[in-house]
Specification:
Blueprint lengths: L3 H15 L4 H8 L2 E5 L7 E6 L2 E7 L4 H17 L1 H13 L6 H14 L2 H8 L4 H8 L3 H13 L32
Helix pairs in contact: 1-5, 2-3, 3-5, 5-8
Length: about 180
């Protein structure tokens, strides 16, 4: 497993080099093609490598907020796991086990890319964990990944242990118009 320190360093290098945290822009400058298809809610997204081309496929049914998170997650696979995709091929990457290290690493990558340290800490000074997730428009599980990264950087935050590597596979209300950020 790549260490969280390696993932933090990788994201920081990308952000510094391209001066953006926008996953769409990073895909563009890295030459990663993003495709949208109606996958009939069977799969939200995946990464594959074919003919020396990195590709991300996203279900066209997800809402804009979840789409951005999925792009960041799949970008994590594209940056961290190209060799695995080359060896395993399209079929295997499509059905990655939810408990895999690769999924965990892609979630850490997405959390580090999308959630800036200072912004998270500022919200936490004012709001609870779940209220902070709502303010940042992210699932609590993604914020928990960020907590682990902040802890790694020496910040006095403790992970809530809500995260699981397959949280993006759950139906988070992203398809049916429910309030995506309701935490009960």
């Amino acid at each position: 497993m790549r260490t969280t320190a390696h993932i933090i360093e990788t994201v920081n290098r990308l952000v510094e080099k391209y001066d953006t945290r926008d996953p769409y822009e990073l895909c563009r400058v890295l030459g990663i093609k993003v495709h949208f298809f109606d996958m009939e809610k069977k799969l939200k997204g995946f990464f594959f490598y074919q003919s020396r081309q990195k590709n991300i496929v996203i279900d066209s049914n997800v809402n804009d907020v979840l789409e951005r998170i999925l792009i960041a997650h799949e970008l994590g696979h594209a940056v961290l796991h190209t060799k695995i995709a080359m060896m395993k091929g399209f079929q295997e990457m499509e059905v990655l086990d939810g408990s895999s290290l690769e999924e965990d690493e892609a979630n850490f990558f997405a959390a580090e890319l999308l959630l800036e340290d200072r912004e998270v800490l500022d919200y936490l000074s004012e709001y609870s964990f779940f209220e902070t997730a709502k303010q940042l428009y992210v699932p609590a599980a993604l914020l928990d990944y960020k907590f682990s990264l902040l802890h790694e950087k020496g910040e006095l935050v403790n992970p809530m242990h809500l995260r699981k590597s397959d949280f993006l596979k759950e139906d988070l209300g992203a398809y049916d118009g429910k309030d995506y950020f309701e935490y009960q």
